[in-house]
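The records we work with from here on pair a chain with its fold. A complete example follows; check for yourself that the lines match position by position.
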Amino acid sequence: MVDLQLQYEAHKEAIDNAIFKVLNKTDFINGEDVKLFAGELADFVLADHVITCANGTDALQLALMALELPAKAEIIVPSFCYVAAAEAAALLGYKVVFADVLENTFNIDPASLERLITENTKVVIPVHLFGQSSDMLPILKIAQKYNLYIIEDNAQSLGAVYHFPDGVSKYAGTIGHIGTTSFFPSKNLSCMGDGGAVFTNDENLAKKLKMLANHGQEQKYKHDIIGINSRLDTLQAAVLREKLKHLKQYNYARLKAATIYTELLKENKNLVTPFISKNGTHVFHQYTLKIKGDQRNKLKESLEANHIPSMVYYPVPLHKQPAFSENVRVHHPVSEKLCEEVLALPMHPYLEQEQILYICEKINKYLK
């Protein structure tokens, strides 16, 4: 699905040199590369503050902790996405409320979101899925109307841009009060292990986030608040600094591969190729098809027989997961339908046209 070996080999000398510099300096925790990377990433996404942390799930937990929400707070998250946002909210004792998503973009449905708001609703977490931003303008209007915080989960869409009708464009993850991301090895910007970051343009939130990620201390051994230990280690920061230089190139290569996929598959009436909203750009963390007529699982088996990997992101909506059994009576038809239809194909910056041709040939042959 993602060829990490090719990416490493493409930048092997630079990455190895960066790692060896850290080894020679032995500044493994909060070293120079961590500070430099935070600044460089802030410059890339045009955010005032970037706070690095251990992983994307910690980033979400830190964001929620920084808001100091009341004990009975309700957090709205989309049902069709990875569990991290819901998990972070539940671990902090908040009530997780699941919203349905839009059938074309797979992102949170603003209408579903607004219907779920109660007097206890305090936060909405739009998850920018598969490489493109949620439709942020109506979400911003809803948040303003009901006095809600917005935490953007941008683990899958780093580098994607959202266009507002007035001509203003902003990077996904920098539009709400706080944005989060992950540097898991399969992400568009990845490290060689776990890593994450939080974005904000609010100076007070940034100060609090830094303290929370460092045991609640601004000054060593002076703990002003209860925090956690969540740090991006220096070795990973050194790797990320090298890869960040190429992120735009990576995202362009993904878009190019997606364009070839779509051109070869668009005439097949048994599937739907990914939708790209006019409201922004798509960086194709995943290239996700919708397969019609209950053929998804059989097609997956056929691809596997031809040595073609594919993945189902996601097979069960979050409101149907045993961990959130209190939602057993909830019905979100779009999320439930997508879980039966979606199939992600190999997607990374080093896909060759011949590989895409082979994959599409096998798909079109099976789905006649």
Q: What stands out?
A: Residues 247-366 form a domain with the Aspartate Aminotransferase, domain 1 fold (CATH 3.90.1150.10). The first strand starts at residue 49 and ends at 53. The chain is about 40% helix and 15% strand.
